Amino acid sequence: MRSSFRSRLRIGAIAVAAALAGGAALGADKVKVGFVSTLSGPSSALGIDIRDGFLLAVKLNGGKLGGLPAEVLVSDDQFKPDVAKQLFEKNVKRDKVDFMTGVVFSNIMLAALPEALDNNTIYISPNAAPSSIAGKDCNPLFYAVSWPNDAYHEAAGQYANTRNLKTVYLLAPNYQAGKDSLAGFKRMFKGQVIGENYTKLGQLDYAAELAEIRAAKPQALYIFLPGGMGINFIKQFVGAGLGKDIQLVLPGFSADQDIINPVGAAMAGLFNTAHWSPDFPNPANQKFMAEFQKEYKRVPSVFASQGYDAALLINAAVRDVKGKLEDREALRKALKAAKFDSVRGPFKFNTNQYPIQNYYVRTVGSDGKGGLINKSIGEPILKDHGDAYVGECKMKP
Known about the structure:
6-stranded mixed sheet
């Protein structure tokens, strides 16, 4: 199955090269975006935040992207790869969209992505960014506006080193992003991993895993469990009393607002790593925070910030090609230049079209209004950080 995906990527890349050579000069009358994400079920908060961030950016631009009226076709993949694949096919072949975006989970994106690439449609990833596409399977139509799958976890491994943690137990779901996550942590961590467990994707009961963790007696526990998985695990971890003896270390998306709100007070004081924080003082982020809370009456998560930035990237590229979406080579170059003010601060693409950016330590503390929110701590734990796979990408700059 993996080799089939790679072959489709190569076929897509060849077709892209041919299409790029024949770009037209006429401007488009509107921008069409196919937005497919997980909008129902236990993990829907992630997709909803990406959607809301993306649509907010479009609204603040007067309903336009790059000066052209924007039509965003929103669909729910229902957390099912086959559904996502069908939706991608519909958006690309029937709706003739200019861009695809929106997917939360790597396994869903890997199933659906060839439908875009094989048909010369650009995919802007607001979240999933598997290691394979960062390296040997890189593609000129794939842009990750979020982070490489490993990066948050590499930052967490480095943070564990600064806390002088010696023994760690690792837990993640058994799919590509879960495997990338623990590989990233281990790449940086200098201590001993005394246990490693891959759970079922979407699992909500962790009694067996908690028993194994208790028996292993690690100094710290590192988990990657986004959405409903993280909510249930942290509640059960605290309820089992393990937090008294084991330090819980988290990536940002396992300690974000979608986790903080349902878990509550148990999140206070936990540390996590992320490329963005609600308290970043740059003007783009201050505007985003104010407008998101005004529009949706809640604090945005890192997922919302990524959806917002994905729209800003498209906006900048369409603007810079003056609406000539048919000129694919110019459009690709405009996307790669990334001339927009990201809510995270400094941002640029590496040669594999994955970000080079800073990663920070955050802690969950009081928002001054009776709630909890993430706050960044000091200088970046990783500065101008790329990914471990870019050397395997043979795509030309």
